Structure to design on (591 residues):
């Protein structure tokens, strides 16, 4: 008996050959994933080809082919929401990375500083996003909010900030930068501290300046972390929701509606689930493609390294 | 000689850079914490003080907001209970299914593992509504919409992946020789897992559990859409305090403090796991 186990185990632990054997302990996970992910997703897929609306009695649930998808691609609100999402990503991503990387360079070279300040810097990232939204909502209030009062006293902005269609989208970006720059700081500080020591000793012997060390050694070594950080930030920026809901509710007008919020509005405010399912499918396809591109980048990089 | 001078200059520069860096870090830390402290402070202010148009650090502290929210009239004690039940049950469910899966992920070369990883990744990546809408339709068919079990299941969509990838990288750190030695001693594979590996991994499992709990505790969208009235959690009850009649700032701040402060305390102890958890095990803390 025990012989067989050792033998089996050696095949398993040898990591040479792929097998179905590992699935033995995997089935609870598979069942759970089928239950909460695969089946619901298939049902929603079928909804996206139907005319389904929970509050419109004239919606007959009949099959209408690709009509919902066609509507989505011609819906200016949907297109605008994608534009806003793209703008949010293009503005927030570089700012968060620059600021975050700069701070993590400072933290990784001064351990006492890191010990005392990192837990404080992490606060915006770990508290519930809904609390972050409330923080934005209250502090930006022009009458009694911390930032609102300050801006008014300085004479920069007089009236409502969140109610101003020009400023509102930027408040969503600003709150995201406040919330997630700590994330960049956290993972780059960890990344910088986990770098191997040898290249730096060698470069010190060769008399490289700290700028050269940063540019020629640290950054290339951090590339894999950059890729994963961009992937995670990209997708999180793609799906901002909580802060928008509590701060502006998508308004004024629809100026702060990103694509995730637009999908929420169609489905859970207008209850147009047929059309909403098509919108969600389109968003899913976009995030799937982005994922695919990034994973390809990561794996090709790893192979290049080996 | 010139190199000596250069070195001295370099050292001077380094000192300057360090000072500038320290100032930058302190400014960032202050910006991170002050808005949050403002909310916590407001939780102890009465209505007049919250609406005061000047910035003042001095006010008469009151517990009225906490009493209004969590007292018998507020209903937040029920939401607190729901949050705790959902968080704990979800963590238990994810650990029971995820830990053995992570172990076999770590020990076996699994067919299709890459695809499974990709699948879990896309689930984490796609917009929240794209996960919540299919669940909404499915749960409506199953008649578990607006119930606590529904929200518990919904939270596994992100926490199961977290548990699997955190635990996998932690099991990877346990030498495989230990498993082999135990197998030679006549343990069955299941016994190796439960009697040898699990006791070693206990602290890591505890940290993973706390982190998964934080995610469930903080979660808003699924609880809002799938929880309805009966399974409302603390975060998903926030919009209820922003009404047409006005915003209950005091209560909102009090609930925020209750939601945020335990998480901050936990996170201080979990810093190392936080990095791994946030990056699906790709970056070691």
């Amino acid at each position: 008996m025990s012989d067989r186990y050792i033998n089996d185990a050696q095949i398993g632990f040898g990591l040479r050959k792929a097998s179905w054997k590992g699935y033995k302990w995997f089935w609870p996970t598979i069942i759970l994933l089928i239950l909460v992910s695969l089946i619901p997703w298939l049902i929603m897929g079928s909804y996206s080809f139907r005319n389904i609306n929970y509050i419109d009695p004239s919606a007959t649930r009949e099959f209408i082919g690709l009509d919902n998808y066609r509507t989505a691609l011609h819906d200016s609100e949907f297109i605008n929401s994608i534009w806003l999402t793209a703008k949010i990503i293009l503005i927030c991503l570089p700012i968060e990375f620059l600021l975050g990387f700069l701070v993590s360079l400072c933290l990784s070279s001064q351990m006492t500083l890191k010990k005392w300040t990192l837990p404080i810097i992490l606060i915006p990232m770990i508290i519930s996003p809904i609390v972050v939204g409330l923080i934005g909502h209250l502090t930006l209030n022009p009458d009694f909010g911390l930032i609102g009062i300050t801006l008014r006293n300085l004479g920069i902005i007089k009236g409502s900030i969140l109610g101003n269609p020009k400023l509102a989208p930027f408040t969503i970006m600003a709150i995201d930068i406040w919330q997630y720059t700590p994330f960049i700081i956290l993972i780059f500080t960890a990344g910088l501290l986990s770098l191997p020591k040898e290249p730096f000793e060698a470069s010190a012997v060769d008399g490289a300046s700290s700028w050269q060390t940063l540019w020629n050694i640290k950054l290339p070594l951090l590339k894999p972390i950059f890729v994963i950080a961009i992937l995670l930030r990209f997708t999180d920026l793609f799906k901002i929701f909580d802060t928008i809901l509590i701060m502006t509710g998508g308004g004024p007008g629809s100026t702060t509606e990103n694509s995730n919020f637009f999908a929420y509005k169609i489905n859970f405010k207008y209850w147009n689930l047929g059309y909403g399912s098509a919108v969600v499918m389109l968003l899913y396809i976009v995030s799937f493609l982005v994922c695919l591109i990034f994973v390809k980048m990561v794996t090709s990089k790893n192979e290049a390294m080996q | 000689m010139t190199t000596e001078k250069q070195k001295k200059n370099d050292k001077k520069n380094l000192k300057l850079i360090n000072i500038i860096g320290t100032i930058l870090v302190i400014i960032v830390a202050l910006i991170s914490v002050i808005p949050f402290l403002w909310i916590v402070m407001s939780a102890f202010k009465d209505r007049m003080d919250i609406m005061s148009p000047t910035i003042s650090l001095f006010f008469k502290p009151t517990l009225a907001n906490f009493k209004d929210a969590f007292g018998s009239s507020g209903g937040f004690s029920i939401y607190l209970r729901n949050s705790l039940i959902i968080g704990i049950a979800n963590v238990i469910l994810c650990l029971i299914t995820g830990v053995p899966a992570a172990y076999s992920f770590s020990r076996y070369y699994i067919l299709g593992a890459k695809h499974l990883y990709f699948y879990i990744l896309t689930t984490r990546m796609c917009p929240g509504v794209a996960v919540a809408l299919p669940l909404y339709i499915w749960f409506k068919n199953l008649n578990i919409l607006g119930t606590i079990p529904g929200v518990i299941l919904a939270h596994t969509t992100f926490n199961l992946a977290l548990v699997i990838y955190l635990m996998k990288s932690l099991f990877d750190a346990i030498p495989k020789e230990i498993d082999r030695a135990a197998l030679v001693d006549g343990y069955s594979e299941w016994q190796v897992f439960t009697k040898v590996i699990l006791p070693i991994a206990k602290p890591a499992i505890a940290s993973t559990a706390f982190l998964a709990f934080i995610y469930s505790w903080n979660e808003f969208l699924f609880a809002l859409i799938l929880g309805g009235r009966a399974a409302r959690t603390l975060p998903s009850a926030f919009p209820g305090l922003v009404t047409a009649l006005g915003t209950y700032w005091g209560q909102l701040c009090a609930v925020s403090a209750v939601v945020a402060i335990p998480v901050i305390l936990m996170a201080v102890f979990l810093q190392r796991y936080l990095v791994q958890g946030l990056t699906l095990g790709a970056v070691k803390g």
In short: Strands of chain B lie at 242-243, 246-247.
